[in-house]
Amino acid sequence: QVIICATWLSISPPVPRRDLGFQGSKVTLELCSHWGAPTDKSLIQDGDVIIGGLFNLYHIPSTKDEDYTKKPHYEPCTGLELEPLKYSYAMVFAVEEINRNNTLLPGVKLGYRILDSCSLYPWALQGTMSLVGGDTHSCGLPVPMIIGAESSTTGIMMSSTLGPLYVPVISYLASCPCLSDRLKYPTFFRTIPSDIYQAWAMAQLAIRFHWTWIGAVVENNDYGQLKEIFGKGVCLEFIETLKKETIVTDAKRAALTIQASTARVILIFCWYTEVKKLLHELAKRNVTDRQFLASEAWSTSDDLLQDQTISKVANGVLGVAIRSSTIPGFENYLRSLHPIRRPNDVFLREFWQKEFGCSPLSSYFSSSLIPRSDYLSNVSASSTDNVPPQKISPPLCSGTESLENVENHFTDTSQLRVAYNVYLAIYAAAHALHSLLSCNTHTCTFQKNIKHIEVKTSINLLQQLNKVNITTPHGERFYFQGADIPAMYDLVNWQKQPEGQLKLVLVGRVDGFNLHLNESAVQWSSGSSQVPFSVCSESCPPGTRKANRKGEPLCCFDCIPCTEGEVSNETGSLNCQRCPSEFWSNVMQTACVPRQLDFLSFNETLGITLTTVAASGVVVTTAVFVLFFCNRQTPMVRANNSELSFLLLLSLKLCFLCSLVFIGRPSVWSCRFQQAAFGISFVLCVSCLLVKTLVVLAVFRSARPGADTLMKWFGPVQQRGSVFLFTCIQVIICATWLSISPPVPRRDLGFQGSKVTLECAMGSLVGFSLVLGYIGLLACTCLLLAFLARNLPDNFNEAKLITFSMLIFCAVWVAFVPAYISSPGKYVVAVEIFSILASSYGLLLCIFAPKCFIILLRPEKNTKKQLMAR
């Protein structure tokens, strides 16, 4: 007990204070305050279950280091902070929203008790004990859980204190990774991600932009212990520490270090109040060529963004921020707040007086039993030498004041970050209580009207909090992973506007260990889109090895390329590894790969060209087919059997299409199909020409005396049968070849260097020779017969056209053989495709171009008389 009392009296002893409650006309002067100054003001709403809230609503202003160290802990805080005030009303709004919900905690009214901790650890501890132990000055009820801990140190302190009592603490800002330890802090939960994720994000930003030489400024508490943020390959030139108690001298020292450093990227992992001091010191020294990486503690600070003094220094800040969100109805709720509707809200009255410069007490004194002047005189008379006199009261409010048109940090709900974390914390607590009320097993007995919290009940509540897995009112899934929630951050950038002010711009996000950044949207410290350069030596890329410089840091080195056949596949590799004999290093010397596969693909220039030519042939052939079909009753089309002409056009289209099968990566089926398609398509084409030639000869031979019976052997049925017979022979040859020894893909290792040609091996040279030989036999026969019929007397003799086409056909394929044998690698395939396309175009143009010319441009010659004229 002596130790307890000594600790209490040394940290925050009892002091005299005034009790300004409104009971009667007297102001009570208490000799002792049970917990000191922090319990003077609170926001209370009674209910079946009371949830505690602890916020840094006030601060102790100080301009010098010695002012802070000499400031007594029991001296009242001054300066109401608007952002924390908004956090507290986010808690109030969530509680009232839940109380209106008929499905969540039906029949149970939630209450709240909100205290101020003034950013001081002793007061935070006093507030914590007041909440869990009850307070005779307020409702006196202990709370089953607390929403609080605006810092990691406070979270550690509260969790260590409340752990034996099994009272859960749900923090909205404590982000130290140490708090994820469930063995040390089993009662701690938080709605802000662990700093591990934002530390990882900062490291990824450094790696992404190749910043290997960085300075760091951290805070001297649990929030700033993040030296492990950077991994291998990134060096810290310096680490400066800022202490809140000595911030002025620390900021000056850190500014001088930054000014003298060669690192152009500076990481600052501190609270925004300390950062403001540092940036002011940098502005005094005109240090404007540094790129700052910001932690979530200051990356969205409006206080810094609106400070014109630091705009040149802070331009281009890239930071990790708590994810932004919206709370439906929250803005209307804030703007509807009024002291008349909340007469017991001491924080709202003070905010009202600060915002409008008047006292909202008029509404109370208008209905009071005593005049306001009597009340003030009594307060003045009760002053003692130990209690400072009260300040002069401001003028009374008119009653027309409203927050509807007020624009400040308090009413701005466009990007709710910490306030949304508070909102989530309340809903997590409510759902845990709901699950506890709905539990019917013997392990979770729980009374509906909770007036006294037992250890067994607290344990059950902890169990339900660990199981929370809910969907918020606007559709977001929320659950705890131990003490943590799934990590989600915004990546923000401070960009200077034309009028000179800094604007917060969203440029990316972090989801767990996934970072998404829109680099083109980032404005860097130079004001341009050029990424800052911050290295001692550029990291050796894969394909090189590091050679450390003697007497210099590890991040200062030379890069030596690996020799051919050796690789290094890591950035900053110390040695190059030699590849096995069957492998070879790639061009960048970064990997041992099987000798590079080389084949004719659709993506290269040659493949694209051949594909385009083949597709053009298909289009032209189709156009001719359509033209002939539309003019199928004209003599030009009907001459020499129009059915064969259409079949010939169809076969030519197949010839163009079969060339596409040769392009692309060879496979088992493509190798088999390409040669069969090639052989059958060309046999069908040449068969049509051969039959047409035979028909021409038969027609003119039948005109001689005694040859009338010759045409019965060349009727339409016989023509179709002949084409079918010639084609079937090729089909049989291909089927036999593919069944006995089909073509298969193989790697040709005969070429020197790192490339290996992937090609289709013929399997059987005899089969390939038979396919080509049969095509050549038909072509030569057709050429011979067409040559014999070239001088027949008709004005339009198709035999001449067939003769020219077959000459071109045979010339192409005669030239094909030596070119095919001598071509290297993938160009073997290109030669075959070229031969297919050249012969197909030769047949198409020589046979059908003259006919199309007459049909389209000389229709007067498209008559039977003109065609049969000698």
Structure description:
- The protein folds into 4 domains: 42-64 and 75-192 and 328-361 and 405-475, Rossmann fold, CATH 3.40.50.2300; 195-323 and 487-521, Rossmann fold, CATH 3.40.50.2300; 544-594, no CATH class; 605-703 and 714-869, Rhopdopsin 7-helix transmembrane proteins, CATH 1.20.1070.
- The chain is of the alpha/beta class and 870 residues long.
- The longest helix is centred in the C-terminal third of the chain and has 35 residues, at 668-702.
- An 8-stranded mixed sheet has the order 12-11-13-14-15-18-19-20, with helices on both faces. The chain has a 6-stranded mixed sheet with strand order 3-7-4-8-9-10, with helices on both faces. A 3-stranded mixed sheet has the order 27-29-28.
- Helix content is 42%, strand content 15%.
Map the helices and strands.
Elements: H1 2-11, E1 17-19, E2 28-30, E3 42-45, E4 49-55, E5 58-59, H2 65-70, E6 78-80, H3 82-99, E7 110-116, H4 121-133, E8 146-147, H5 152-162, E9 169-171, E10 188-190, H6 195-208, E11 213-219, E12 235-242, H7 247-260, E13 265-269, H8 272-284, E14 291-294, H9 302-305, H10 311-314, E15 318-322, H11 330-335, H12 346-356, H13 362-365, H14 372-381, H15 418-438, H16 455-466, E16 469-471, E17 477-479, E18 488-496, E19 502-511, E20 514-517, E21 544-548, E22 557-561, E23 566-567, E24 577-578, E25 583-585, E26 592-594, E27 596-598, H17 605-630, H18 635-638, H19 642-658, H20 668-702, H21 716-740, E28 744-748, E29 755-761, H22 765-788, H23 798-822, H24 827-857, H25 864-868
Parallel strand pairs: 4-7, 4-8, 8-9, 9-10, 11-12, 11-13, 13-14, 14-15, 27-29
Antiparallel strand pairs: 1-2, 3-7, 5-6, 15-18, 16-17, 18-19, 19-20, 21-22, 23-24, 25-26, 28-29
Helix pairs in contact: 3-15, 4-5, 7-8, 15-16, 17-19, 17-24, 19-20, 19-24, 20-21, 20-22, 21-22, 22-23, 23-24
Membrane topology: Multi-pass membrane protein
GO molecular function: G protein-coupled receptor activity
GO cellular component, one term: plasma membrane
